[in-house]
């Protein structure tokens, strides 16, 4: 069985005998490589003097001088299991986004029932899974849904702009997503650049992406029953 190697053999020289680096210094060096990105964690690993770096939900490895960045899997030769996959799952489960840090003043707001619970959704109008999610959300009650337009697919910006520039944004959004009724082709000043920047800064790599009241993240389309369960769990924390 061929295993994925983390470090090509000719690069091993750079890591043997390396002293532990100051993690604060590593963070500063990494900020140069990831300008504008949040360095979520820097952690010393037990293998080859490498440091684990988490940026935007992605996991990299680097040396103490940040001379190289490695994207790949560390594999346990005994069990043949990916230690990186295990860590990625832990990172995913622990990752949080503070909803108070998001520009909800630029959201399309929909109040259902008493609206006590809060759900934030990054959504692209031309994303088929986003449209499926909108149908699921009609079956979730007592929630306020804040939709942040995130037109990252090709050709989505004009549609998102037309929805935002409509006299009734919520109606235009629901008409398009639930009833395939295109919004009038109006243009105006929009917060799209801000929303895309915020999404990228928080590692939102696809749509839809849901953020629950406890800051937990759920990428992709999930059914109403799962949304309801996660809303209830997040509300009691």
From TrEMBL:
Keywords: Disulfide bond, Periplasm, Redox-active center, Signal. Residues 18-84 form the Disulphide bond isomerase DsbC/G N-terminal domain. Pfam families: DsbC_N (PF10411), Thioredoxin_2 (PF13098). Residues 112-231 form the Thioredoxin-like fold domain. One of its GO terms (cellular component) is periplasmic space. It is found in: Periplasm. Residues 1-21 form the signal peptide. Required for disulfide bond formation in some periplasmic proteins. Acts by transferring its disulfide bond to other proteins and is reduced in the process. Belongs to the thioredoxin family. DsbC subfamily. This is Thiol:disulfide interchange protein. It comes from Nitrosospira briensis.
């Amino acid at each position: 069985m061929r295993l994925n190697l983390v470090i090509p053999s000719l690069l091993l020289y750079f890591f043997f005998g390396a002293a532990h680096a100051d993690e604060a210094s590593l963070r500063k060096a990494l900020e140069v490589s990831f300008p504008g990105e949040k360095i979520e964690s820097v952690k010393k690993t037990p293998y080859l003097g490498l440091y684990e770096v988490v940026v935007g939900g992605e996991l990299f490895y680097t040396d103490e001088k940040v001379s190289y960045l490695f994207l790949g899997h560390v594999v346990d030769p005994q069990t043949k299991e990916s230690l990186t996959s295990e860590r990625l799952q832990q990172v995913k489960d622990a990752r949080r986004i503070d909803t108070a840090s998001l520009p909800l003043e630029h959201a399309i707001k929909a109040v259902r029932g008493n609206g006590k619970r809060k759900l934030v959704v990054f959504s692209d109008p031309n994303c088929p899974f986003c449209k499926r999610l909108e149908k699921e959300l009609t079956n979730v009650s007592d929630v306020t849904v804040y939709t942040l337009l995130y037109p990252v697919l090709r050709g989505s910006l004009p549609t998102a702009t037309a929805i935002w520039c409509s006299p009734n944004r919520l109606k235009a959004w629901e008409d398009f997503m639930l009833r395939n009724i295109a919004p009038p082709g109006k243009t105006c000043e929009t917060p799209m650049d801000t929303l895309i920047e915020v999404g990228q800064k928080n590692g939102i790599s696809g749509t839809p992406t849901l953020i629950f009241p406890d800051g937990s993240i759920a990428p992709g389309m999930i059914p109403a029953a799962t949304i309801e369960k996660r809303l209830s769990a997040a509300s009691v924390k």
